[in-house]
Design goal:
With 297 residues, the protein is of the alpha/beta class. Helix content is 44%, strand content 18%. The chain is built from twelve helices and eleven strands. Strands 1, 2, 5, 6, 7, 8, 9, 10 and 11 form a nine-stranded mixed beta sheet that branches. Strand 10, helix 10 and strand 11 form a beta-alpha-beta unit. The longest helix is centred in the middle third of the chain and has 20 residues. It is globular and about 50 Å long. The model has no long low-confidence stretch (mean pLDDT 96).
Length: 297
């Protein structure tokens, strides 16, 4: 059985959740600030990425972080390019921790149009997918945002996600399509109605052997995305925390059967650089356990 097949089986069948460790350039200073590291700790982007890699290394090497409760971890390209304990990050995740590595591939969001933000162009995507494959990456993730219940905007987001998703499948990787709905959208429930219709339409146009994952905002109506979860072309539907704190995100997640977490901020909430290893590991363990339990419904 190849590594890819083992990883596919783990993602499809095992209980657990996906850790999102993929904050990139724009969101890194905020993530480090919450971790207790201020901007005077670096003087350029390369130093900033070194500091954030130290934070991610501390999380990934913690005894609390392993494949028993964590299915996969989403990395930023710069993290993939670095090492943990003399192994490439992706190799360390899989070989040492039994955690499936994913890579964030989008280049950020275009300006809002029709109540939504599609992704910026990705001219180097083919080369990045080849590099990911060579690094032992299993799948990818890419994010768009819906801010209003506007059919034109929602359809543009979903169409782009599926178009690029097919390219990723053709490259031998499993794409996580992430059409996030802003939790502060004034018509969030209506936007979810439009999104579900578009997502199911997109799934129904895939060939039988084309498998994708969805990363979705926790819905207003419990079990709203059940038809997506049950669809034969879906490997897994995961949830983003989207700005909800961990308690609120876990509470909403637990009410959505078959949906599992892919939390970023809610996963690392409360962790700081100033913690002793004992404090850090205990807090991370409690966070992982709470998210694992909420995912296991």
């Amino acid at each position: 059985m190849s590594n890819f097949d083992k990883q596919l089986e783990k993602i499809k069948t095992q209980n657990g959740f996906i850790a999102a460790l993929d904050q990139s350039g724009g969101s890194t200073p905020k993530a480090l600030g919450l971790y207790g590291v201020t901007e005077d700790a670096w003087s350029n982007d390369e130093e900033m990425f070194t500091v954030v890699h130290q934070m991610r290394t501390r999380i990934i090497t913690s005894p609390a972080f392993n494949g028993e409760r964590i299915l996969g971890a989403i990395l930023f390209e710069n993290t993939m390019d670095r090492e943990i304990k003399a192994r490439s990050t992706a190799d360390y995740l899989w070989s040492v921790k039994n955690v499936v590595p994913f890579l964030k591939v989008d280049k950020g969001l275009a300006d809002e149009q029709d109540g939504a933000q599609v992704m910026k162009p990705m001219p180097d995507l083919a080369a990045l997918l080849d590099k990911a494959k060579a690094n032992g990456i299993f799948g990818t993730k890419m994010r768009s945002v819906v801010k209003h219940a506007n059919t034109t905007g929602v359809d543009a987001v979903v169409r782009q996600q599926f178009d690029i998703g097919r390219q990723i499948v053709a490259a031998g990787l499993v794409p996580i399509l992430e059409p996030e709905i802003d939790i502060n959208a004034p018509d969030k429930a209506e936007a979810e109605e439009l999104l579900k219709v578009a997502l199911l339409d997109g799934l129904n146009q895939l060939d039988a052997d084309q498998h994708v994952m969805f990363k979705l905002t926790l819905p207003e109506q419990d079990n709203f995305y059940k038809e997506c979860i049950d669809h034969p072309n879906i490997l897994r539907v995961v949830a983003l925390s989207g700005g909800y704190n961990r308690d609120e995100a876990n509470s909403r997640l637990a009410r959505n059967n078959g949906m599992v977490a892919s939390f970023s901020r809610a996963l690392v909430e409360g962790l700081t650089a100033q913690h002793s290893d004992e404090e850090f590991n205990a807090m991370l363990d409690a966070s992982i356990e709470s998210i694992f339990q909420a995912s296991n419904t």
